[in-house]
Amino acid sequence: MSSNMPPTAKKVPTERSHHGDTVIDEYAWLADKEDPDTISYLEAENAYLKEQTAHLGELQEQIFQEIKGRTQETDLSVPSRKGAWWYFTRTEEGKQYAVSCRVPATGDTPPEIEPGKVLDHEQVLLDGNELAGDSPFFSVGTSSVSPDGTMLAYSTDYKGAERFTLRFRNLETGETLPDTIEDIFYGGAWSADGSTFFYTRVDDAWRPHQVYRHTLGTEDDVLVYEESDERFWVGIGLTRSERYLVLGAGSKITSEVRLLDAAEPAGEFRLVRPRETGVEYGVEHAGDFFYVLHNKDAENFELATAPLDDPGAWTPLIAHREDTRLLEIDAFAGHSVVHFRRDGQTGLRVLPKDAEPYQIDFPEPIYDVGPAGNPEFETGRLRLAYTSMITPPSVYDYDLATHELILLKQRPVLGGYDPEDYEQVREWATAGDGTRVPISIVKRKDAAKPAPTVLYGYGSYETSIDPSFSVARLSLLDRGFVFAIAHVRGGGEMGRRWYEDGKMTRKKNTFTDFVAAAGHMKEAGWSTRLIARGGSAGGLLMGAVANLAPERFAGVVAEVPFVDALNSILDPSLPLTVIEWDEWGDPLHNAEVYAYMKSYTPYENVDGRSYPPILAITSLNDTRVLYHEPAKWIARLRATAAGGPFLLKTEMGAGHGGRSGRYDAWREEAFALSWIIERGTA
Question: In this protein, which residues make up the domain named Peptidase S9A N-terminal (predicted)?
Answer without folding.
Answer: 6-411
